[in-house]
Amino acid sequence: MTLTSLLAPYWPTRKGLLLSLAMVAVLVALPLIAADSYTLHFVWKVLFWALAAAAWNIAGGYAGQFSLGHAAFFGLGAYGSTLLYMHFGLSPWIGMFVGAGAAVAFATLIGALTLRLQGPFFALASIAFAEVLRIAIVNWRSFTGGAEGLSLPFDPSFANMMFSDRLWYVYIMMAALLIVLLITYVLERSWIGYALAAMRENEEAAEALGVDTVRAKLFSIGLSALLSAIAGTLYANYILLIEPSTVLSIGFSVEIALIAIIGGMGTPLGPILGAVLIVPLSEYLRAEFAGSLQGLYLLVYGALLIVMVIVMPLGLMSAIREPRTAARRLRGVFGGSSRRRPVREESRHA
Amino acid sequence: MSAIIVQLLVSGLLLGGIYALISIGLTLIFGVSRIKNFAHGDFVMVGMYLTYVLNSWSGLDSYLVLLIVTPLMFLFGLFLSWAIIRPIQGAPQVAQIFATVGLGLVLQNVTLMIFGGDFRTTASVFAGKVLRIGDIALPAPLLIAFAVAMAVVAVIYLFLKTSYTGKAMRAVAQDRRSASLMSIDVKGIDLFTFGLGTACAGLTGALLAPMFPVYPTVGINLVLIAFVVVVLGGLGSIAGALIGGLAIGLIETLSGFFIGSEMRQMAYFLVFLAVLLLRPAGLFGQRGSEKLGA
Amino acid sequence: MLEVRGISKQFGGLRAVNDVHLSIGKGEIVGLIGPNGAGKTTLFNCIAGAFPPTQGQVLLEGRNITGLKAHQVCRAGLARTYQIVKPFGGLSVLDNVVVGAINQTHNIAEARRIAEEALVLTGLANRRDVPAASLPLPGRKRLEISRALATRPKVLLLDEVMAGLNPSEVEKAIVLIEAIRAHGISILIIEHLMRVITAVSDRIVVMNHGSKLAEGQPAEVLKDKTVIQAYLGEDFGAHG
Q1: Going by CATH, does the domain composed of B2-278 fall within 2.30.30?
Q2: Residue C61: exposure state from Cβ atoms within 10 A (0-12, 13-18, ≥19)
Q3: What pTM was computed for the model?
Q4: ipTM of the complex
């Protein structure tokens, strides 16, 4: 049993499940060991990005619905629960589901309208939808606070999903991540998972084999939106400030997709791995080079993306699983472009 | 009131000409090499900064600097194509999106690190000068940009129609494999096309620099507009990029006046969505495919 | 089993398929031949639901499946393969076939069993864990067929499965086709290799320019003058 096989949960195995539990156990233990507020915040961040990326992963990684507009769902969740809390005093625990409902509705709309769009066109449409939503929210000042966003008054209580002790936030985020992880595993093993994978690999062939791709698309985008919205609510109640320029921005959409991709999209652990790698890196870069080399971490992101795409397009997980393929690709870049790749049938939209 | 309408129409068309120029690069790269270059707006940004640097260093007017910037950007495009685009040519769509997004991030942040986030301006004898015809005001930089843009569009169109390289590009756009069987150097065409597209973007940047503030993330909005134009006009279609650009320029200017500047963006996003959903091939693209239509 | 009544397909000004009638009985193998551009694959697409026909009807076991979407047609019991194979490259061979099997059951263990059976029939069982992308062409063709078989079809549409295979692989494929028929599945097969068509077909249908040109026993049809002319070969016999 090598490390490689331990880290290869694409075809779900008990080992993969154990490993995820181990990772989560580490994260659970961490705040107990170092319970200072900075560490807690840091752990929360890692978990948050992992959650957001894992939610994206269901649509983007598993179903091949590569969206760059997920901020819309996240934002609907954040705004939904926050507005209900601020105007009606509704507990965010319940408001969360209302926000999620709105996100699912929006996702269904987008999904239904974009059925015929492939690859980058779908990505572009998702950007456009998210931007339309953002602009609408920014302009509906009276209701949504416009560009300044909404500030949640801090009134700690369980019902308000606000806590004086950060540890609570961390545990809630962990629980949420665990749930999403579980959902991802179950999905992957189920017949729905197979249908989504087939659709992702080749939509036409999937249809010919009996996969109702319309329903599969709507399902995957809807589920992904629901989970993203929940992440939005959790974010709002911790950060206590939601602004369109953060929660509804293209940058945010790109970042969550980025984390899932770098870690390995289409695998349950990929998003977590991505977050564990990227968040500390960005914190470090931001701290080290604040002011003097502002923007360095984004530059590193960008460079990482480019390198990644060339060397391991399926993310870190695939490089770990198949290091020889990754090495070969790396050699191929330097060894000339006439390398023979394995014969691949051209997709319809090559 | 009618004078206002005419002014808006004129301004919209002039702006549209610029949009057309940005989009031509994008549509060429897409049509020939099938690369969706999400960094295209950042290429414009690089052109703007190059203009700024050369302008403030040499004192030469921005419009003269343009003559240096454009070939430089062409070479830059060749380099990028060789270094980054070539290795991902066969990669899945998703990978291409991300590589170019990554490239954009790198360009934005290198610029941010070198120049900081402050707005820059470039100097030109034409900046601020306005030509008046009757009640219509035509800002000189905008007029020049429009004229250059139209000239470039025409030149590129003729180039594609008459020159060997141009025809080779069209061949590659229609069928890569057959083109290579006809001993067309497909890889060379890819490189050249990317260089050409980058040069167009850089040129636009040089034209915009005297008119608009220059800052590292200016490209993000521009690339979205470029995609809207290209989708509207039809991927790979020169005529489409032209008409689409003019159309979007008009839509944006008119809606800015009637709906308000904040909702302006929403107007063209909605147009974008309408096109994507109703006729993804665009006005001039072939139905159901992404072939070169020009 | 399968009845195709007066199918026509119009693309703008082009009539790709013109009033084609065809029927296949249970356990029958019907060969569909014709020069390139005759409309054979378009006919397949109309039958299999890739797009609806402009006119005409398709009946499967008496049930009207005209214009149903591809996945519905599959559920109804008609499966197809593609001329240019479309494997799910990132999945293993077994997982590819499981996708077909989930039509029959939502239970994964059960689906795997069905998939295994299909793989045994097509001879890919020992490569079940291989990523589909790394299969050579003959393997991919077999995979294509395995997937279709896992949907437990009543009728199977094979679109040029022999293309790109060397002679010994062709022989094996012929054996496979017979084995499939032995399972009671009716087959409609598009093929260019005459040797294969004559070996497996109970009947042959010839198409040209979208219309049905001839139909009958292989021996008769292939001697028919109009058929020979359609293929532009007076010396057709030499290519048999």
Answers
A1: no
A2: middle
A3: 0.85
A4: 0.87
